[in-house]
Amino acid sequence: MAKIPADLEKKRLGVLRSYSILDTEPEKEFDDLARLAAELCDAPIARVNLIDKDRQWAKAIHGMNEDSREVPRNTTVCQYTVRDMNVLEVQNLTQDDRFKDFSYVKGEPYLKYYLGAPLLNSEGYAIGALCVLDYRERKMPDEQIEQLKIIASEVMARMELRKQNEELRELNEHKLKLMKMLSHDMRSPLNGIIGMSNMLSETVEGDEEAEMIELLEQSAMQLNHMVDEILSYSLIES
User: Fold this and answer.
1) Domain with CATH 1.10.287 in the chain
2) CB of 129 closer than 8 Å to CB of 152
């Protein structure tokens, strides 16, 4: 297996898992980018592969069977793209000692060509690769290699946006939970004050005392109404 220094690998895996994308359902935006990569490179296969500790898992697959979504890391070409954090082109997999004995090279589907661009986050960690594959030996023009790198950058941008949206969703859930707790904790004593005011208003005889109790009750009711408005606003905002 392509070795990455232990400290770098630990940080890289931490970055990968921060996206919470492993083992998630297919998403159209990533599938579309994989298809676009295949079309631009005139290749039958394209994949968005993420390199986990011991496995390769594909977020998007174009032109291959679903059973190839997860494979052992040590049987992948993308592990080298991730290790070197640079574009990797292998014109003939059958003539490369690193890959010639892989099952999908010497057997079905008899792949020969590989081109992969690393998926680099803003800190420079490679969490995976966008790759295209072919059944024939070939060499990709520089222009198409650059286009693949651009699509890889877009894949990474979509992952960043997905991560931000998930963080916002979790923040909103936490905010709503907090507001409901505060609302309950504030309503309980206010309702107690209102209840006690009603009881006292039935027992007092003087006008001054009755006026004070009424003012206390109205203040408590106003505060209760403000709590309702704050909670309603938070729900609408979320």
Assistant:
1) 168-237
2) yes
Long-range contacts of 100-105 (CB under 8 A, 24+ apart): 102/75, 102/77, 103/75, 104/68
Q: Which two tokens stand for residue 100?
A: 């010639």
DSSP H helices, the chain, are 6-18, 28-40, 78-84, 103-106, 142-201, 207-237
In sequence order, the 6+-apart residues with CB closer than 8 A to the CB of 221 are 190, 194
Query: What pTM, to 2 d.p., does this model score?
Result: 0.75
Cβ-contact 40, 56 below 8 angstroms: no
Residues 6+ apart with CB under 8 A from 16: 22, 50, 51, 52, 125, 127, 128
96-154: per-residue pLDDT in tens? 999 999 999 999 999 999 999 999 999 999 999 999 999 999 999 999 999 999 999 99
> Quick one: fold of 168-237?
Helix Hairpins (1.10.287)
Each residue's pLDDT tens digit, 81-108: 999 999 999 999 999 999 999 999 999 9
What does CATH list as the number for 6-166?
3.30.450.40
